[in-house]
Design brief:
heterodimer; A: Rossmann fold; 16 strands; B: 296 residues; Rossmann fold; eight-stranded mixed beta sheet; two-stranded antiparallel sheet
């Protein structure tokens, strides 16, 4: 293993290269990351033999991926925020067509007001689109999850697209030591793309036909079943990944000092790092706090969550998103997973639009949860309201 | 040579009797040759030819969305290129006029700018027929549609038909043509030329719609020819930006073409609207002058 210090986006680009996509399609809508720029120079330097399409919008970026994937190529695109919002119609369509597209999402806030900074509203708004959604805690996970995603998505028993979500700026623009795997190992793990079916004049098929009320419900059921099956596939290939690369991804939820915790914090993405440091300090003060890191939001690992949290007496959910007029999307799922357990679940909407979240904030949230205060926006600047 | 024995668009689909678009597609696929992958925008054609689990297509076919066919085609072309399949397999897009001149324009512009090797066919039935005859940017002046209805204060569609082929010419396309299903040999030949030309090619095909235009479905060919004969539709080819062929006609006044269709009936009943008919005649006259269609 050789560790290199690299920017998150560039590390992702280098890793995508190792996965050998044949067609890359991307548009640099503001805010973009360096992923597609990195891939553009990789292709320009001849380090990856791929067709790189500079499309005229994010909408076309994913549309071109649909065409390329349907014609039998492994594809890649990356986006975030407004770009993902513009893609919405195509996002649902790509999933319904069951095309194994992998797309990197450097999570950022959604306008209005315009914000280029981090939260997770963009991918969360796509929760019902039928894509797999993985969330990385650090850049090592972000690149590992890209490799894992291709393996899971292209499984003929799954055939789904996936978002690999990693926090914009906090991860995408941060330099960290990273182990970029060898080409040999990635080839061994991912292998060449073998499409389940493709556009081919030697074997004509019709893709994307419309479904009458006699068939639509069954299409949706089968899609839902595939997303649910993906949970086991991620675990299986995540274990295999661990055996090959030495980093295990066989769990969709990962606990930190959770076994004996009274209070559990549930979070997704880079905030988990801050939470772990805060937990270490709180543990030193005698507070039994633990973390449940959700690595996978779709499929939602309800049973795993319920099992991991069964013994705690309080749950504090950190949501970097909000379903306005309801709660944060993660809290809604956690409540559902813990239904019938009588464990109180408190929701904290925080960090929206790039608002910094520090260890002291995590400690304050634990204090609030202990007092039974929650279901709130945390850290509001009352003076500007 | 066009292989007229090719039948890649099968019978049994659900188009209206007398549908201009379905006849056009059957002929276009003869012109396109054997190894063609079709991309189809949402619209009449897509709906009447592929109600799951039935399909009328005997060649690979994909439908994604209404407005993204050119982007999907871009991806297919890139994919074929990467796999070394582009020498044998060709990409052909079908979009209606709404999918082309309105909602899909951005994707089309991008694909033509990038220069992908594909042919885009717009089957132009001059309104959103699949959804109930709403006006599009390709609806002719004064046509009565459900969103540009003729009434006491209106003579129908207020805007002239968008000259979309010229927009494609401006993109530097090597081959832009107009055709009509009423002249099948001309249509098939143009498709053959487009498919053989490297780069992004465009053909806009006039496809009369008996349901939307209001005429007897048995008269589709006749209506198509009348459009050409009065100069409201012009068949031409523009190769590398230069007008190279034009269908010349012994031009007749627009009256008979208009009178034959319910969508223009308000111009004749209860009383003849001379002023408006003169405006439509002026559009035909301008076409004749611009393209030199009159036989001296």
């Amino acid at each position: 293993m050789t560790m290199e210090i690299m920017e998150g986006s560039i590390a992702v680009a280098e890793t995508v290269r190792l996965c050998r996509p044949q067609v890359i399609s991307a548009y640099p809508i503001t805010p973009q990351t360096h992923i597609v720029e990195g891939l553009a120079s990789i292709v320009a330097d001849g380090r990856l033999d791929a067709e790189y399409i500079c499309v005229e919008s994010e909408f076309s970026a994913l549309s071109a991926c649909i065409g390329a994937s349907a014609a039998g190529s492994r594809v890649y695109s990356a986006t975030t925020s407004q770009g993902l919002a513009l893609m919405t119609e195509v996002v649902f369509n790509a999933a319904g067509m069951r095309l194994p597209i992998v797309m990197g999402i450097a999570n950022r806030a959604i306008s209005a007001p315009l914000s280029i900074w981090n939260d997770q509203q963009d991918s969360i708004m796509m929760r019902d689109s039928g894509w797999i959604q993985l969330y990385a805690e650090d850049n090592q996970e972000a690149i590992d999850m890209h490799i894992l995603a291709y393996k899971v998505c292209e499984d003929h028993n799954i055939l789904l697209p996936a978002f690999v979500c990693f926090d914009g700026f906090i991860l995408s623009h941060v330099f960290e030591p990273i182990d970029i795997p060898s080409q040999e190992l990635v080839d061994k793990f991912v292998g060449p793309f073998t499409p389940y079916q493709k556009l081919d004049v030697n074997d004509p098929i019709s893709f994307g036909m419309y479904a009458t009320p006699e068939y639509y419900l069954e299409f949706r059921y089968e899609h839902d079943q595939a997303v649910k099956r993906a949970a086991e596939a991620i675990k299986k290939y995540g274990k295999e990944f661990g055996e090959i690369f030495g980093r295990d991804y066989s769990e969709l939820v990962v606990g930190y000092k959770l076994e004996d915790a009274d209070i559990a914090i549930v979070a997704m993405g880079s905030i988990c790092g801050t939470v772990k440091d805060a937990i270490d300090e709180m543990r030193a003060e005698g507070k039994k706090v633990g973390l449940l890191n959700l690595r996978c939001f779709r499929p939602f690992p309800s049973t795993d969550v319920a099992k991991a949290l069964a013994h705690v007496n309080t749950i504090a959910v950190l949501d970097k998103n909000v379903s306005l007029g309801a709660k944060g999307a993660v809290a809604i799922e956690i409540k559902e997973a813990c239904y019938g357990s009588n464990i109180p679940v408190y929701d904290y909407i925080l960090g929206l639009g790039g608002r910094d979240v520090r260890k002291k904030d995590i400690k304050k949230i634990v204090d609030l949860a202990e007092k039974g205060e929650g279901d709130m926006f945390y850290g509001l600047r009352e003076e500007v309201l | 040579m066009v292989d007229r024995t090719i039948e890649n668009f099968d019978c049994g689909h659900r188009a209206c009797g007398g549908c201009g678009a379905s006849s056009a597609v059957r002929m276009i696929l003869k012109g396109a040759g054997k190894n063609v992958i079709v991309v189809n925008a949402t619209g009449c054609l897509e709906v009447f030819s592929t109600p799951y689990p039935e399909t009328a297509w005997k060649t690979p076919w994909i439908h994604s969305l209404f407005e993204n066919s050119s982007a999907v085609a871009s991806g297919i072309e890139a994919s074929l290129k990467k796999q070394g399949r582009l020498e044998k397999e060709k990409v052909l897009v079908f979009g209606g006029d709404g999918a082309t001149v309105d909602i899909g324009t951005q994707c089309i512009s991008g694909a033509f700018e990038r220069g992908h090797d594909f042919t885009y066919v717009c089957y132009d039935n001059e309104a959103y027929m699949n959804t109930g005859i709403q006006r599009s940017g390709s609806t002719p002046y004064d046509a009565d549609t459900t969103t540009s209805p003729a009434g006491v204060c209106s003579t129908g569609n207020k805007l002239p038909k968008k000259d979309f082929p010229q927009i494609i010419v401006a993109h530097g396309s090597p081959y832009v043509a107009t055709a009509t299903m009423a002249y099948p040999m001309d249509l098939m030949k143009k498709v053959e030329t487009a498919m053989k030309t490297k780069g992004p090619c465009y053909i806009q095909v006039h496809t009369p719609c008996c349901t939307g235009w209001g005429y007897d479905g048995a008269k589709t060919m006749e209506i198509g020819r009348m459009a050409v004969e009065c100069g409201l539709w012009v068949n031409y080819e523009i190769i590398d930006g230069k007008l190279t062929t034009v269908k010349k006609v012994k031009r007749v006044p627009v009256d008979d073409y208009l009178m034959a269709q319910k969508r223009f009936r308000h111009l004749f009943k209860p009383v003849r609207n001379d002023a408006e008919i003169a405006k439509i005649q002026a559009i035909a006259d301008k076409n004749a002058e611009k393209y030199g269609i009159d036989i001296e």
